[in-house]
Amino acid sequence: MKQTLKKVVDHIVELTALGLEPPPDMPEAIKNCIENLGGIETKLVIQKFIQVTDLKPSQNRLSMTMNQVRNKFLSEAEEEKLENKGVIDAVFVEPCLEVSNLHLTKWLIGQSYAYVFRTEWNHTVRKNADCLKPMAVVQIWSFRVGPESKLGFAMIKVRDGKDSHLIN
Fold first, then answer.
1. Cβ distance 19 to 153 under 8 Å?
2. Is there a contact between 87 and 97 (Cβ–Cβ < 8 Å)?
């Protein structure tokens, strides 16, 4: 547990050193895209560094360590579904502003649990290859769509991984 807490603290220290704590606000283009989908109740889920494993085709997944999640974004029913090894189909606004669908699940990775986007993740990486690079900083935001309150997510790149400049 101490090692997990140390990783979280180190992550926050790194983001602070880059001027990313507190996290920057959501760009207008993403806000507009979510609004056009009928999205409401936006919440910042995570701000993370893209890891090499997040981009490997053989992995076909993006993981979000639960101890780095900033806000509760699942309903009780959705939490229960993931606890029972279920999958949630979610709308996904990509950094390029294309809208796709991904599956959200929950995995035990090492000694901690993580929320994981999978199934079409490789396709998302290929379409956004210009911005999804190792050590890029991204934010994942959740939102709700429609009368059935379907879960949606948006990914925003806030810092490039190659030359570490802020993205506007």
1. no
2. no
| pLDDT over 90 (residue 64) | yes
Q: CA 5, 8, 12, 17: dihedral to nearest 10 degrees?
A: 90
pLDDT band at 14 (very low <50, low <70, confident <90, very high): confident
One-letter amino acid of 121: W
The type of residue at 20 is L
Calculate the alpha carbon distances from 67 to 14, 21, 90, 165 in Å: 16, 17, 21, 27
- Give tens-digit pLDDT for 85-133: 999 999 999 999 999 999 999 999 888 899 999 888 999 999 998 889 9
Q: Please tell me whether residue 150 adopts helix, strand or coil conformation.
A: strand
CA distances from 89 to 31, 100, 111, 137, 156 (A): 21, 10, 26, 24, 20
- How far apart CA 23 and CA 73 sit, in angstroms, is 17
Amino acid at 168: N
Q: How far is CA 32 from CA 100, 106, 154, in A?
A: 16, 29, 11
Distances (CA, A) of 138 to 15, 38, 63, 75, 77: 11, 23, 12, 24, 27
Residue 161: pLDDT band with limits 50, 70, 90: confident
DSSP assigned state of 151 = E
